[in-house]
Amino acid sequence: MSLAPRAVLVHRTTEYEELVARHGTHGQAAFFLSSRGRDIEEIAERHRRTRRALAEVTAAIPLTWRQSRVERRDLDRFLFAPEDVVVVVGQDGLVANVAKYLAGQPVVGIDTDPGRNPGVLVRHRPADAGALLAATAGVEELTMVEAVADDTQRLVALNEIYLGAAGHQTARYRLGLDGDGGAAEAQASSGVLVGTGTGATGWIRSVWQERGGDVSLLPGPSEQRLLWFVREAWPSPATGTSLVAGELAAGARLTLTVESERLIAFGDGIESDAVELTWGQRVTVGVCGERLRLVG
Fold first, then answer.
1. CA distances in angstroms from 242 to 45, 226, 252, listed in the order given
2. Which of 49, 58, 57, 46 is nearest to 16 (CA)?
C-alpha cells in the first residue's frame, strides 16, 4: 500500500517571536523598540498575518493527507520523504532555504505578506492552498547551482553560491575554466559568486547592474545557464584580474584551487551551513543535475 501524501509546512520564526524571546514579554519588547523610535504594532501585525496564513493553509490540507511542520533552523535535521508536498509559508528566501534539502518534491510557495515580498518564489495566497494541493500540476523546474570539493563535500543552492574567506576578507586562490587548456589565474579578491536565473533577481542582479550589464541578458529561472563574478579582484605582481566574470553553460565548470589557510563555500546566504576548504583543495562549480520543482 502506498503512503498518503504528506504536506510539510515550512515556516520561520517571526520577528515578533524573536523579539519577545529576547526581551521576555511583549511589554518589554515594545519598550525596547519605542526607545529606538519604532512601534511594535507593525511587527506584531506581520506576526498575526503569518499565523493566520499558517492556520489557513493547515485547514486546506486534505483530510486524507498526513502533515508535518518544520521551522527554518531545523531544515538540516528534517528528513523529507519522496511522497512529500512541501508548502513554504513565508518569504521568497525561505523557498531557497529549503531547496537544497529536496530531491524532486513539489514546492508550493505561499506569500504571507503580499506587497512586502517580491513574490518571485512565493507566488500564491493562503486562500489558493486548497486548489494547489488538490492538483500540483503546472510545475516549473528551476535551475540550481552546485559546488563539489575534491574531498566529496557538496553544496547545492537555488540562488547563488559564494566562495571566499569567512567574513568576506581577502581570499587567495587560483581560478580556471573548462576548455582553457589547464591555465588558471592566481587571484586575491573578496570572493567569487556563481548564481542562477532565480538568483538573478537578487545578489547576482546587483553585481550585474554595478558592472553595467544589460538586465535583459540575465538568464531565466529555468535556463541551464549560470553567471559568475569575482568580487573586487586585486591586481598585483602575483595576482591577476583577467578572469572576473562570465557564463557557465550546462556542462561547463568553474574551478577554484584554494591558496589560503581557510576558505568557505555557502549557498543562498546561509553561512552557518558552509563547506570548509583548506590550502590546496580544489572545488568545481556548475549547473546542478537536480532542479527545484515549483508549483505554479
1. 50, 19, 19
2. 46
Residues in the chain: 296
Crossing angle of the two packed helices 40-60 and 15-23, in degrees rounded to 10: 120
111-120: which pairs have CB atoms within 8 A and are 24 or more residues apart?
Answer: 112/46, 112/49, 112/50, 112/53, 112/54, 113/46, 113/49, 113/50, 116/46, 117/91, 117/92, 118/92, 118/201, 119/92, 120/92, 120/198, 120/201
> Which residues lie closer than 8 Å to 41 by C-beta, 6 or more apart?
none
Give how far the C-alpha of residue 36 lies from the chain's centroid of Cα atoms, to the nearest Å: 31
Instruction: Work out whether strand 160-164 and strand 262-267 pair parallel, antiparallel, or are unpaired.
Output: antiparallel
The model's pTM is: 0.87
Q: Cell for 224?
A: 541551464
Nearest-10 crossing angle of helices 15-23, 26-34? 100
3-state secondary structure of 130: helix
Closest CA to 134 of 62, 71, 229: 62
What are 263's strand-pairing partners?
277
Q: What is the mean pLDDT of each run of 10 residues along the chain (296 residues)?
A: 86 95 94 92 94 96 95 93 95 93 94 88 94 83 96 94 90 87 85 93 85 78 94 93 91 94 91 90 95 92
Output phi, psi for 52, to 5 deg: -65, -40
